[in-house]
Amino acid sequence: MLIIPKEIAEKIIQHAIDDNPNECCGILAGTGDRVIGQWRITNAEASPYRYRMDPKEFLEVNNAIDEAGWEILAFYHSHTRTEAYPSDTDVRLARLVDWPEAYYLLVSLRSPGNPVTRGFSITDQEVNEIALEIG
Known about the structure:
Blueprint: E1 2-4, H1 6-19, E2 25-31, E3 34-41, H2 55-68, E4 71-79, H3 88-96, E5 103-108, E6 116-123, E7 126-130, E8 132-134
Parallel strand pairs: 1-8, 4-5
Antiparallel strand pairs: 2-3, 2-4, 5-6, 6-7
């Protein structure tokens, strides 16, 4: 389970809307299962089909998270035309990430007036949905 304050969940959705038609991406950090901070990261791909976090921004955010004594809990990104479920590319990229315990949050804008947010764990190419508590 991942516990996300309502205001952070709203910021994630707004980020997806702001970056549409391209995918957005960012980081959620905190302690245990509770998200405390959210950071927007520039999608270096600037693409509606994929994302790649800007490496310089990622390093700066990772350092700030370390200095705060928090940990990266989740990586988030949006799907502009498909459901909030990891694509084959998302699953392949998860293998390359050095945070195997991190979750993946996806925001779907497929139905623009009704964004959908879901969370997943991705390990060894196995995708499992996790519970999100927003509030």
